[in-house]
Amino acid sequence: MSVKRYGPADKSSPDEIRRRFDADVERFSNLETGQTSTVDARLAMDQIAIAATRSTPAAKHVLDLGCGAGNYTLRLLQELPNLNATLVDLSQPMLERARERISAVTSGTIDLRQGDVRELDIPLESTDIILAAAVLHHLRTDEEWESVFQKLVAALRPGGSLWVFDLVEHEHPAVEAIQREGYGNYLTALKDEAYRDHVFDYIAREDSPRSLTYQLGVMQACGLERLDVLHKHLCFAAFGGHRPR
Ligand SMILES: C[S@@+](CC[C@H](N)C(=O)[O-])C[C@H]1O[C@@H](n2cnc3c(N)ncnc32)[C@H](O)[C@@H]1O
After folding, report:
1. 137 lines ligand 1 (CB under 6 A)
2. Is residue 135 part of a domain?
3. Are 45 and 165 contacting, i.e. CB atoms less than 8 angstroms apart?
4. How far away, in angstroms, is 132 Cα from ligand 1 center?
5. For residues 1 and 200, is the Cβ–Cβ distance under 8 A?
6. Does the predicted TM-score (pTM) go above 0.85?
7. Residues near 176 by beta carbon (within 8 Å), at least 6 away in sequence
8. Res 1: pLDDT
9. How far apart are CA 99 and CA 175, in angstroms?
10. Residue of minimum CA distance from atom 1 in ligand 1
11. I need a surface site. Which of 50, 76, 96, 173 has the fewest CB within 10 A?
12. Would you say residue 17 lies in a domain?
């Protein structure tokens, strides 16, 4: 298997990423499976919905960052009905699909925000739960990662919680190679080697994931406490933390 290498300047721009997702709404509209190109997607979604609910039981508002077609908010609403929701995404077609699906199951308000999380103003202390599934890996530089985590933590009300499910890298190249190989085997078993190469190519072109340890460190530096890893398998991890009361 050979995956083309992309330098930082060749990576997809936010506009290219938006266009790809604009055309891919259907694939992100399956609550039963979540995204099949990610490992343990449904398990991670369940773990996050339940952990967010039990650790933030009085929540009234959820912010779903990179909401796609709304799977994570839909799953959370099964545990905590009628939350008010703010849905953020680069892609307007994704937001429209998310609103359609979520409005069918909640009497809470639904606020759509189309834009790049790096540029969006999110009001301070405006939400109890933040979900960020398969979106942060589109950030590039350390400055972007740190300022987005800061913005998210500042948007939490005291006692609120932030949950991430994402593609992650590993600190040691040998460990990264083992986990990538396992992920490649997963994709081959799901479809075939051509599909594996296709997924690996768009990851190389579009994504710049960071390690779980890096992200936990930034979350802690931004003031989150009681960090927990809910699940980690191959190149995917589900984790979160709480803003002190
Ligand atoms: C892989 S999908 C995941 C969707 C959903 N969270 C889920 O798990 O089903 C990533 C979503 O993030 C959005 N996205 C990517 N980069 C973004 C950015 N910088 N700001 C806001 N949304 C972004 C994409 O448009 C896409 O809908």
Report:
1. no
2. yes
3. yes
4. 8
5. yes
6. yes
7. 169, 170
8. 61
9. 40
10. 134
11. 173
12. no
